[in-house]
Amino acid sequence: MSNLSDVGFTVKSNDDINSLVENCVKTVEQIPCTKGAYLKFADVSGVEIYLQMDHGGELTGFNPYYNGKSKRRVLITKLIERDSSPLDGGYYAWSNSTVEGEGDYPFVFDLPNVFTNTCEMPKACEIRLNAFASNDLAIFDNEQSYYDSNAGEFQCSAQSFVPTGLFRENEDIPPQAHAKFAGTIKEFELKTNQTSGEQFYWFLIETLGGEIDVVSDVNYVETEPKIGGILHGSFWLTGKII
Predict the structure, then answer these.
(1) Burial of 143 (0-12, 13-18, 19+ CB in 10 A)
(2) CA 77, CA 19: separation in Å to the nearest integer?
(3) Closest Cα to residue 181, out of 200, 197, 165, 198?
(4) Are residues 52 and 114 in contact, defined by beta-carbon separation less than 8 angstroms?
(5) Do 214 and 236 touch, CB atoms closer than 8 A?
(6) Contact in structure between 108 and 237 (CB atoms under 8 Å)
(7) How far apart are CA 99 and CA 73, in angstroms?
(8) Rounded to whole angstroms, how far apart are CA atoms 216 and 5?
(9) Does residue 41 contact residue 27 with C-beta atoms inside 8 Å?
(10) How confident is the model at residue 1 (pLDDT cuts 50, 70, 90)?
């Protein structure tokens, strides 16, 4: 399992990853940036892969993305670079804010094309936010069944967002684009990745702070989803400035 399986690419070895990269690189759009270029592959299902190429023409990494429907207002305040690849990175942001230190909450989200979006900060803007599911994903028919599931234990609201990537023991480590949240299912669909032929779930979720597009490996979805149901779990966050 990996983030790739959340969008219908099952990879179990380095050979699988190499094969995926080789297939994607055949039909890409090259997007120049300050550190080289991103090579964008797009599947008709909405799945995108952003390959990373340095100025010497070497591939240095890649990231998945899903082109969904979510929109939310944020104030981005800081660029976060990653040591995983020179072209990896994200933003520190405040949800529903125009003033640093105010809003619903702070959080971090990665961007698959972050160095094509460099700008003066702080910057108020609209983003499309993706959440890639983990194996703790849980779906409930309604709020009551969600609250009943953990009777007697500490539990977050059915509309909640906890930026877990900000909680770290070593402050020298950059904050991560991770969160745990619960929200209401507004839309969902069992999608087929046309490149791989594999299926994955897409959800449009309303939670504290706004909408999020959630994508999930079909094996994580153990309960039949319903409109108005509650989705809960831990996620990797990635997005784009609209």
Answers:
(1) middle
(2) 38
(3) 165
(4) no
(5) no
(6) yes
(7) 12
(8) 7
(9) yes
(10) very low
Instruction: List, in sequence order, every residue forming a beta bridge with 33; answer none if it has no partner.
Output: 36
DSSP structure string for the chain: --GGGGGT----SHHHHHHHHHHHTTS-EEEEETTEEEEEEE-TTSEEEEEEE-TTS-EEEEEEEE-----EEEEEEEEEE-SS-TT-EEEEEEET-SSTT-SS-EEEEE-TTGGGS---SSEEEEEEEEEEE-TT-EEESSHHHHHHTTTTS----SSEEE-GGG--S-TTSPPPSEEEEEEEEEEEEEEE-TTT--EEEEEEEEETTEEEEEEEEGGG--S---TT-EEEEEEEEEEEE-
How is residue 188 written in tokens? 């969902």
Cβ atoms 200, 193 nearer than 8 A = yes
- If phi > 0 it is left, if psi is from -120 to 50 it is alpha, else beta; for residue 152 that is left
Q: Which of the two residues, 181 and 14, has the higher pLDDT score?
A: 181
How are strands ordered across the β-sheet holding 29-33? 29-33, 36-42, 47-53, 59-66
Q: Which of 236, 220, 235 is nearest to 84 (CA)?
A: 236
> Is the predicted pLDDT of residue 79 greater than 80, yes or no?
yes
List pLDDT tens digits, range 142-183. Answer: 999 999 987 555 678 999 999 999 998 777 889 999 999 999
Among the listed residues 88, 104, 82, 95, the one whose alpha carbon sits nearest the alpha carbon of residue 51: 88
The alpha-carbon radius of gyration of the chain (Å, integer) is 18
What's the token pair of residue 210? 């706004």
Model confidence at 221, pLDDT cuts 50, 70, 90, reads very high
